[in-house]
Amino acid sequence: MSLISTLARLEAVHSGRAQPTATVRHRHLSERPLVLVPLTTAGEAGAPLGALVGTDRDAPRLLVVPQPRDRDLRFAFLAELADVVLPYIDTFADDVEAAERNETDPETGKRVKVEVELCADAPQLIVPSRAGIELVRLLGRSMRFRRTAEQDPETPHPAPPRVPLLGRWLTHFGERARVPGSALLLALTEVLGRHWATGQSSLEDQHLAALLAWIDPPDGVSGAEAALDAELRRDARGQLVCPPAGPATDPAFDNKLLAPAIERYDRARTALAAAEDGLEADDRLGELTAAEREIRSLVESVTRPTWEAVWHGLDLLRALPEGAHAVDRWTRDRWSFTGHRDRIVAGEPPQPRRDDAVTAANKLATREREQARLDAQEALDDPLVMAGRRLAGEAFAGEVIDVVMAYSEGKSPRPRPLVTVRTDDRPHLGERVKVFRSLGGKPQSAEFVGHEEDGALIVLRVVDKMGRGKEPETGSLPEKGDRICFTLFEHEQRGGAKLPDQEETPWTHGGPPGEESAVQESADPVTEEDVL
Amino acid sequence: MSADIVFDPGAEAGRATDAILRDTLHGTARGVVVDSPPGAGKSTLVVRAALELADAGRPLMVVAQTNAQVDDLVVRLAEKNGELPVGRLHSSDADPYDKALDDLPNVRKSAKAGELAGLPVVISTAAKWAHVKVDEPWRHAIVDEAYQMRSDSLLAVAGLFERALFVGDPGQLDPFAIVGAEQWAGLSYDPSSSAVTTLLAHNPELPQHRLPVSWRLPASAAPLVSDAFYPYTRFRSGTGHGDRRLNFGVPSDGSGPDRVIDEAAESGWGLLELPARHTPRTDPEAVRAVATVVRRLLDRDGAATSERSPDPTPLTADRIAVGTAHRDQAAAIRAALGELGVTDVTVDTANRLQGREFDVTVVLHPLSGRPDATAFHLETGRLCVLASRHRHACIVVCRAGVTDLLDDHPSTEPVQLGVTVKFPDGWEANHAVLAHLAEHRVVWRP
Predict the structure, then answer these.
(1) Is A344 in the same domain as A421?
(2) What is the pLDDT of residues A102-154, one digit of tens each?
């Protein structure tokens, strides 16, 4: 944890309210996000219990699996989810703008610009917490390899149509969420935690209701009290007033309310199956429907508070103006969305179970580059974030007190003016360390020359962005009296080296996938339990 | 005792080197892996292998991890054989290489691989090699510091060569990624693991060698470092107990720093223990204590006697280093040294001290004053680097209570399926080092 966030947390404890750690919103928020509040069944990984989902805060769609261990009911749930999510995604797929992309021409091997489509906007999925993102990934994995009856008439348990497609999309969202700064799939607790520091630990911040209690406590109550209340207060039936944001449920809810309700549902179903004539069946169907309705209302009662909390959180975030670079990152999200749309349209197979060596290395490189870019952009967009970097010795701000013209040696001397900055910051500057400032959105670099007056003055030599002439262009240099801010970190990231193609994976990494030299993955042996 | 008499470090090291060169020059395997403990003559081996491969007429590319390492190798190659044409492939940034290379007539420097084609040896960093494209791969490559190289950067360059010699120190800091890579944990080609891990996962049959003798570490340090960090691949010191001496012209003034200096001069290790306390990372008292120790080391007219020369060499600022875990700690110590009028002493983090060598090191213990022991601070390689940079003595400055801290924080990293557990773990290694340091403790209240 950085010094400034420690200070912010201390201040939050002291004042009883979460302290802002950002002055702008560092993530793009869609005009029309799809909010998903999922619940799973305790003790059965990835078995959905229900969800509230939708784009309209006043009219969420409630999906429920009355018997989560019944695979047919699970499929029905996933099919319903696909009916909500896929049409939402489709509304973004067709609205495109023209864009250019650099591609390697297969004939000449040269880089050429190609006209391509870029979706004008992209879908955005919001889940309450990090565990929600994990569930999206898990659901994606469980669905994308399923086959529908149409794809494969022989398949023993065909999935409903569109379920595999939903799996591919959820996988894409889940994978994209690993890219720092991306916003296709957001966990609300993470985004709120980026913008506010509470007086509790970051582990406790994963409880959405408690986090919101710190950020926006009710009148007259301190954040700490409100958060404790959100975590612990139970009603007369022993149920939490603020149920966990999921996907896990509260054990008291499971034991006292859900389990008996599911049992009633099971009994009603068995009774219906045993019905001997039409009249009896009608009665028993009525009981089954009532039992199912009870489970539905139970699931709604524990998802609705989270649903409201998510929208409340979005309101709080929307009150912040969007950071200048957030839209750039959203554009990359749009590229990512468009790319996946194209892969699906082109009939490519679902994402493989595991990345091959080249894909894994490429993903890691991209994410590292995006992390560095995000760190730099957040600081450039937001003076409060920059203050944190200055406090950490990674940037400094101050007043220009002198600019002296100087030139480089050599045949054609170039301008290398010396700029003296007075600052109270204590950056970690070493000999000839490069520093950067933003000049019209582009980084201008300078070299550290030396300290004067015990570190209060920093002398820099500006080395670029002064034009081609012998004299620096107007406006390309700071002037005496200007307030400027230099960073020790670079503002833009260079692209990494191109990795070999998959088919050219070298011998050190097992050779091309599918060849014998690749390490064979051993399947789990079939045990007795597998065939119960 | 009898082992000491039988053990001839020179012959032992020679045998290991011969076997490595035999496998490299005449073996059939596509790769040879060499594990080298601190100061075991890794660079000497790389230079020798490079010269012999060049002699054998095999075009050679050398991959190192940093520009400093590359420049150092070029200089060493030129020292051994000034006639050999060497190519230094460098980036197109300003000041891409050490200016000392300009004085070497047979070293050609270029930012374009094409301009260096045909030279018997071409050296560059992994990052630069990754941008090189060739029609015909090099016959041979040497990958230096292969344990500090990430699997993904080996992936980017492995297509450039047919066979390779991989040399590195498995005990130093593992490469790291700035974003989570758990997704690939357990895969044989996990891009965030070390190049050697991936290489051996796919090619387990490759010959593996190890250099058995540390020429850097004194007889007082080799057993501890070997036991704590290389428990299954032990190594020995190349020198005996009487071969290295550290003497001071100015007698001790009885203060804590002077007493710990005397203890370290006598035994090779010293622990300056400050009162227990939770402190910020840049603990002002500890920082001042480190700076004072360095100041006194310089003031007391130190002289180091070693097997290198019969006469003592003065202990000057360039022979002393200060090691820390974090950059801000290094910055704070630099500032404190500046106030005491000390310049030219190297102060850096473990990451940046890797591969360097000094007569005396002063270390701010990574866990000093901390309320918790995170995986970062427990990392075996970090402590190993800090405790194995010295030829004569190592002085550790630490707050009391680290042993209890360790006991309160057993390692809790999640177990990843398919990942080889690395021994020893940082927790164990930290305890081993602390137990040894406790015998050389000087308690001091500044």
Answers:
(1) no
(2) 877 777 777 788 888 999 999 999 999 999 999 999 999 999 998 888 888 88
* pLDDT tens per residue across span B307-320: 888 889 999 999 99
Q: Which residues fall within 8 angstroms of residue A510, CB to CB, at 6 or more apart?
A: A357, A517, A518, A519, B188, B189, B202
The answer to whether B247 and B361 have CB atoms below 8 angstroms apart is no
Domain span at residue A79?
28-248+302-350
Q: A240 and A332 share a domain?
A: yes
pLDDT score at A159:
87
Measured distance CA(B191)–CA(B198) in Å, rounded: 8
> Do the Cβ atoms of A504 and B183 come within 8 Å?
no
User: Alpha-carbon distance A174 to A182, whole Å?
Assistant: 11
Select the residue of B151, B179, B331 nearest A393 (Cβ to Cβ).
Answer: B331
Helix or strand or coil: residue B87? Answer: strand
pLDDT at A519: 46
CB proximity B420 to A under 8 Å: no
Does the beta carbon of B190 lie under 8 angstroms from any beta carbon of chain A? Answer: yes
Q: Are residues A77 and A187 in the same domain?
A: yes
How far is it, in rounded angstroms, from Cα A491 to Cα A508? 35
Dig out the tokens for B224 from the structure.
């501890």
Q: B167 CB contacts (<8 Å, ≥6 apart)?
A: B34, B36, B42, B45, B46, B142, B143, B144, B145, B146
What are the beta bridge partners of residue B110?
Answer: B89
The parts of chain B modelled with pLDDT lower than 70 are: 1-6
In this structure, is residue A359 part of a structural domain?
no
Q: What would the DSSP string read from start to end of B295-340? A: HHHHHTTEEEEETTEEEEEE--GGGEEEEESSHHHHHHHHHHHHHT
Question: Would the CA dihedral through B281, B283, B287, B293 be positive or negative?
Answer: negative
Asked if A333 and A385 sit in the same domain, the reply is: no
Neighbouring C-beta atoms of residue B210, cutoff 10 Å: 17
Same domain, A190 and A320: yes
B146 touches chain A (CB under 8 A): no
Do B86 and B106 contact (CB within 8 A), yes or no?
yes
Residue A78 covered by a domain: yes
pLDDT digits (tens, 9 = 90+) for B391-424: 999 999 999 999 999 998 887 777 888 787 777 7
Number of domains in chain A: 2
Interchain CB distance below 8 Å, A360 and B191: yes
Task: State whether A338 and A400 are in the same domain.
Answer: no
Beta-ladder partners of A436: A445, A487
ω into residue B424 within 30 of 0, thus cis? yes
Inter-chain CB proximity B179 and A510 less than 8 Å: no
CATH number at residue A412: 2.40.30
Cα separation, B137 vs B118, in Å, equals 12
Domain shared by A336 and A400, yes or no:
no
Is A115 part of any domain?
yes
Residues A385 and A240 in one domain: no
Q: How far is A392 from chain B (nearest CA, A)?
A: 8
Average pLDDT over residues A203-219: 94
Which residues of chain A make contact with B333, given a CB cutoff of 8 A?
A: none
Residue A3 falls inside a structural domain: no
pLDDT tens digits, one per residue of A148-206? 888 888 888 888 889 999 999 999 999 999 999 999 999 999 999 999 999 999 889 99
Q: Which two tokens stand for residue A502?
A: 């998959």
Per-residue pLDDT reduced to its tens digit, A339-351: 999 999 999 999 9
Q: What's the pLDDT at A532?
A: 61
Tokens, residue A305: 């508070």
CA distances from A508 to A165, A346, A400, B32, B154 (A): 36, 33, 53, 12, 8
Of B159, B177, B188, the CB nearest to A364: B177
CA neighbor of B151 nearest in space, from B193, B108, B92: B193
DSSP reduced 3-state for A519: coil
